[in-house]
Amino acid sequence: MTIIEQARVLGAAIQEDERYKRYYKSAEVNDTDPAIQKKIGEFNMLRQQLNVEMQKPDKDADAMTSLDTDIRALYDEIMAMPTMVEFNEAKEELDKLIKSVTYIIGQAANGEDPMTCAENPPTCSGSCASCGGCG
Length: 135
Known about the structure:
Order of helices and strands: HHHHH
Structural class: mainly alpha
Largest sheet: none
Number of domains: 1
CATH superfamily: YheA/YmcA-like
Number of helices: 5
CATH architecture: Up-down Bundle
Distance between the termini: 29 Å
């Protein structure tokens, strides 16, 4: 089996993983949720209004501040909606999986044993005193 064929098998395995399924299910729910779609439409309209205001030669600072405040409030409202919370949690889990897979492949390409190397990159505290080196 070639490396490309193995990558395709890995891709199929990722699509069978529960984290992948959860992410795509939650994305579909959001895409078809009328309440979220309405709020996203409102958000986009406010952003467009702000962009128009910013392009004017005689910008209205009060209008821009008001639009910015409304945009931020609507964004917070959207992100707090239960299906959006679920989507973001699912996305974070899928991102962790993909990051782990990518890290293992990178470590293997650098000569590490893919069967024993860490699943996740080491976290950097900013202090090199206790570090074994950057990867």
